[in-house]
Amino acid sequence: MPPQVKKGDIFYASWGWEQTNIDFCIVEEVSPTGKTVKCRMMGEKEIYEEGMHPMSEYVVPSQPDPKGELFRLHVRTTSNGEPCLVGKYPYTRGNTRRDYFWKWDGHPLYQSHYA
Asked: Each residue of 72-95: pLDDT tens digit?
């Protein structure tokens, strides 16, 4: 039995090489079996704290992209019984990535970048 995932749940992927990228998505539909979901990418809001490196910030999700395409992810279970999502998702103009998405706990996430 897959873990419980419901419409409106927010998940994130964290990835990168020499930088940390955060991608947020929101669950829009759950299949009748609960084994797959359809998600939509979300924007992010940057939160700066005093003393942080100039090329880093914390991020939280903002609104879903109303024109963003729906994409299907598979529901999996982590070792501690929490849900995670896995599959391909759109991340830049016409490109896709395959990654794991972890359930967002409501706390800002660290992100870094160049330029």
From this structure: 999 999 998 899 999 999 987 778
Does 115 map to a domain? no
Contact 102, 12 (CB under 8 A): yes
Q: Cα(84)–Cα(95) distance, rounded to whole angstroms?
A: 22
Contact assessment for residue 2 and residue 35, using Cβ atoms and an 8 Å cutoff? yes
The four Cα atoms 12, 97, 89, 86 give a dihedral, to 10 degrees, of -60
Question: What is the domain extent for residue 81?
Answer: 10-109
User: Whole-prediction pTM value?
Assistant: 0.90
Within-domain flag for 23: yes
Q: What tokens appear for 50 in the block?
A: 């005093």
